Input
Amino acid sequence: MPVDQLSSTLAALADPTRRAILTRLADGEATVNELAEPFSMTLQAVSKHLKVLEKAGLISRGRMAQQRPCRLEAKPLEDVADWVSRYRRYWEGSFDRLDTHLKEIQKGRADA
Output
């Protein structure tokens, strides 16, 4: 069964190590060794995380001599942001109702 792009992106983002890798790549390209530095895991484990990110379209790998620097691909993140923004009206409506309720409580205390 094929997985849609949004599901693939969200699954890749579910792991904190992969999110940390993306955060690092937001600052610019990096090699696997550079990406592995802050983690106490093998290069093989970091490579597995990179494969998940690459399959989800969140990173791409280039070629520079013997190195294959990774770079962030932001389009899938934009798709997630668009999907989440659909729920903004719900959140704003909830906050508006809470604000109204709190004002009623405060008014009731002032009248007492």
